[in-house]
Amino acid sequence: MSTKSPESRRGGAGLRPKTGEAGEPKLAVDRIRKTARELFYREGIRAVGVDEIVSKAGVTKPSLYRSFSSKDELAAAYLRDYEGEFWTRFERAAAAHPGDPKAQIVEYLRGLGERAQRSDYRGCGLSNAALEYPARDHPARLVAEEHKHRLRVRLTEMAKDMGAAKPEVLADALFLLIEGIFVTGQLFGDGGPAMHAVEIAETMIEASRAR
Amino acid sequence: MSTKSPESRRGGAGLRPKTGEAGEPKLAVDRIRKTARELFYREGIRAVGVDEIVSKAGVTKPSLYRSFSSKDELAAAYLRDYEGEFWTRFERAAAAHPGDPKAQIVEYLRGLGERAQRSDYRGCGLSNAALEYPARDHPARLVAEEHKHRLRVRLTEMAKDMGAAKPEVLADALFLLIEGIFVTGQLFGDGGPAMHAVEIAETMIEASRAR
DNA sequence: GCCTATATACGTACCGGTCCGTAACGAGTC
DNA sequence: GACTCGTTACGGACCGGTACGTATATAGGC
């Protein structure tokens, strides 16, 4: 029937935009992804209509639905992009302190604590999406849940490498700390609890080593 | 113009429903508040339409708008109700351990950690609302922000009473821990990071006393 | 060189449905 | 006769989604 492959209708991830990373992408699908990323993150997914996305992106609605089968799938694609950005930030912090997991997580929290106090900070796009869509089988929620499980696993590995007496407990402490920063960042802005992120993490890590 | 006082159009808080606490309230305004509380909390504010609220409450739309000037004001009223429930839970835990702030917060976290692992848990209605409405002047957001400031102040008082070396840091640690539980509760459910809430809090409190 | 066939990328115009909110009026009740 | 509520019917905006037509580029045949 259709001339489209199922692949392209999923808006396959990771493929480079056809135009220089900065500036406006040329292809409609890339302009949509970029605009969706900005609007969904800033205002929330439910708060943004597809009309607003296409008009701000300078494209038309059929172009959106040629690349994404529904708004929900576009939201899922946005979250996959967002997760990529998250891991980029996370691994960049880790790479700054090779072989020193405590310094790695502290470095990440230092950057996060800073960002979380900025006025344009809206928390974690993945956490926010999960809160917006409580239904277990929503495409956006699935992406978010998988990501959070991956992060918890990663933190557990790091806690082990830190020599924690109970790695799972330290990992969850760090996880809860991070999620707390995500939320309070947009609640308090500058001078909020995020300002003490590093100090709290260091205290927690040291106390977890004691035995 | 209107026969209504501004007071009643705001859906004045705290007034007892005219019928026994349990079961269906008799007055339309109370049925609306109860239904709104359930639906807004379970599915989110944006996700629930006023038509759904009035039909589930067994009332009609004009009855809603006779008591609340808009859906946003109904959302704000829901959050004021929700905040009341929060402080009831919080003070109940505190009352169980008079004069022992550490035991008080641990008691609260014990209960929260349990609730957060239940399948119907949807986090904190106030935090969720703030995430749904990033606009600074939204009625619902205002209620949420005020509450969060109150809670931070309360935790700082308790941290002082615990003899923490840096009460503000311990208070923020507890705050971030609590917000983290709110979020991860609905992300992971049973067996999530909330399961370690008490242990983490105790470790953090003890480490904050040391000096 | 010229014509045609096909594929790609996109736009115009429109769909039915749902959103929040209101107008006008009548009925029960203490 | 003041209060509370239901009934019916709208309205205008916006929602996610689609049927259908068009411009441009390239490839192949002769």
Care to give the gist of this entry?
2 copies of one chain form a homodimer. Chain A has 211 residues and is an all-alpha fold.
Question: What does this 3D model show about the protein?
Answer:
The structure is a homodimer of 211-residue chains. By secondary structure, chain A is mainly α. Chain A has helices at residues 6-9, 28-43, 50-57, 61-67, 71-95, 101-115, 125-132, 139-161, 167-188, 197-209. In chain A, α2 (28-43) packs across α3 (50-57), α6 (101-115) packs parallel to α9 (167-188) and α6 (101-115) runs antiparallel to α10. The first copy, chain A, is elongated. Residues 1-16 and 18-22 of chain A have low confidence and may be disordered. Chains A and B meet through α7, α8, α9 and α10 of A and α7, α8, α9 and α10 of B. Chain B binds a DNA duplex (30 and 30 nucleotides) through α4.
Question: What is the element layout, followed by pairings?
Answer:
2 copies of one chain form a homodimer.
Chain A: H1 6-9, H2 28-43, H3 50-57, H4 61-67, H5 71-95, H6 101-115, H7 125-132, H8 139-161, H9 167-188, H10 197-209
Helix pairs in contact in A: 2-3, 2-5, 5-6, 5-8, 6-9, 6-10, 7-8, 8-9, 9-10
Chain B binds a DNA duplex (30 and 30 nucleotides) through residues 3, 27-29, 49-51, 59-66, 70-71.
